[in-house]
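Today's session is about reading a structure prediction critically. Students often jump straight to the picture, but the first step is always the sequence itself: look for stretches that repeat, for charged clusters, for runs of hydrophobic residues. Only then move on to the predicted structure, which in these notes is written as discrete structure tokens rather than atom positions. Here is the chain we will use throughout the hour.
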Amino acid sequence: MRLYVLAGLSSLALALTGCGEKAPQEPVAASSSADATPENAPGIALTDAIVQLPVVAGRPGVAYFTVSQGNGAPRKVAAVHVDGAGRAEMHESKMENGVSSMSPVKEVALEPGKTVEFKPGGFHVMLFDVADTLKAGGTTELTITLDNGDKATVVAKVASPGGGEASGAMGGMEHMDHKM
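Below is the predicted structure for this chain, in token form.
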């Protein structure tokens, strides 16, 4: 009996010790964006997310989305993660002297009041080691990480290879070095 009382008092003491610590404060939202939630970076809105499955299994897929910043200091998208992809790299497609090329980028600048589209022919996210669990017609989560460590997540539609306007957008492009 004495052991149970001591165990109970020890648990109570630990619980009370935890109550004395200040809970971390949530940062005040930098804008009144409807998409700013405790899970998403304040002032950042992600929309129109789509994951295009690879045409050939084992090849890269691609992700497109739109990101907007309400107000505040300029930020940068530093990384993208897509559930079901082993690795995601931000890339930019360019047309120079009639030759289309694609190369990795380390970050993409965001400005207050502006929108950046990740779309065919511009910024996009190459997805490597795409899992068989991603199926056309399903959904997955796409998360961006900003240069200050804040994150924002959106549900992305999973599209079949060759489906929609994104199909063929990567065909014929010359890949630059994939290492970042």
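Discussion point for the tutorial: The two ends are 63 Å apart (CA to CA).
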